[in-house]
Amino acid sequence: MKGLFVEEKFKMYMKEFPEVTDKPDHAVVEIHMCGVCGTDVHSFSGNNANTVYPVVIGHEAVGTVLSIGENDKGIKAGDRVVVEPYHGCGECFACRQGKYNCCKNLKTYGVHIDGLMVERACVPVSKMYKVPEQMTDEQACMIEPYTIGIHAAHQAGVKAGDHCLIIGAGAIGLICGMIVKTYGAVPIFFDPVDERLDKAKEMGFTHVCNNVKEDAVSYLYGLTNGDMPNVIFECSGAKPVLEHIHEYISVCGRIVLIGWPHVPYSHFDTANITRKELMVTGSRNSCQCFPESIRLISEGKVNTDCFISHIVDMKNAAAAFQDMIDHPGRYMKVLIRIRDK
Ligand SMILES: [Zn+2]
Ligand SMILES: [Zn+2]
Predict the structure, then answer these.
(1) How remote is the CA of residue 40 from the centroid of ligand 1, in Å?
(2) Residues less than 5 Å from ion ligand 1, measured at CB
(3) 335 C-alpha to center of ligand 2: Å?
(4) From ligand 1's centre to the CA of 95, what distance in Å?
(5) 131-157 per-position pLDDT tens digit
(6) What is the number of the ligand closest to the CA of 293?
(7) Cβ partners under 8 Å of residue 131, min gap 6
(8) Alpha helices in 169-316 (DSSP H)
């Protein structure tokens, strides 16, 4: 069977692997399709410090169960499933709090351990979720990316009526926007790239601002009647915007840091955290968010089609990855077709 193998940076190809065999509490899944995450592209280009080479990439997959033992999830052979890709050790402090996404020995598919861009994979039943029948494979590949926004919204405790400033209108930012809308909150986007803001408008977001060209503080002041946004999702990791974040947030606001900083950044204005009683929290991957993501997508509460820009066969994946690096503006979510139709 074939899989998409990254031997070392910029050396990715289809490789023949021995057939997988079933293990206790695991199931063999025939993968149909797998989404390409920023993480996969970074593993390809050598920009993900966590990647353990060589590795089969991919963690946003959907497939059909080929063999499975008795299980308490009611999953049977022939069922379509998605797989949560973050595996905690079950023993560390984070895992004991149920925060396996912060496990000190975290193993993520396609990063620390072989991933799911492979024809068949043996996966733990505990990490599998059944996909509703009417949901397409393309939609199912968006379940994991949507969990990132759901987890961030949980971290911020987003409620109806909140003004949520989302800094960075890339895929993660847009996903956060879709999620907070379902919570009845008002998303507001900042991005220095007009094309990304245009894409946000195309997706139905009305409040977008080029925070470099426009007077960002006045824009927020006008939009919120002087209150300022009470939630900020920082999805850019960009230092210039982090320096101004305390000017954008309301009193008693909540700031969620999702983007990894591009450069180590330590100048956080702690006096303003005290003065405004701000809450600052991180959001890493997601934790127990698959059921909510499956429900929101299957009920049509969030759109997935607007994210999917390309579907590529495994054999053309390396060329597509290179083109994604050369022309990032042309791509949104790329899906790799693993199983022939
Ligand atoms: Zn992902
Ligand atoms: Zn752990």
Answers:
(1) 8
(2) 37
(3) 30
(4) 21
(5) 999 999 999 999 999 999 999 999 999
(6) 1
(7) 62, 79, 80, 81, 82, 140, 143, 294
(8) 171-182, 194-202, 216-223, 239-242, 245-248, 270-276, 290-298
Q: Which ligand places an atom closest to the C-alpha of 285?
A: 1
CA 134 from chain centre, in angstroms, equals 23
| Ligand in closest contact with the CA of 98 | 2
**148 Cα to the center of ligand 1, angstroms:** 8
Kindly list the structural domains of the chain, giving each domain's residue range(s) and its CATH number in brackets, ordered by start: 2-142+304-337 (3.90.180.10), 149-282 (3.40.50.720)
- Residue 215: other Cβ atoms inside 10 A: 11
Question: Between the ranges 97-101, 234-238, 243-247, 265-269, where is the mean pLDDT highest?
Answer: 97-101
Between the CA of 25 and the centroid of ligand 2 the distance, in Å, is 19
* pLDDT digits 0-9 by tens, 227-242: 999 999 999 988 778 8
What is the mean pLDDT of the segment spanning 84-107?
A: 97
Tell me the average pLDDT across 209-234. 97
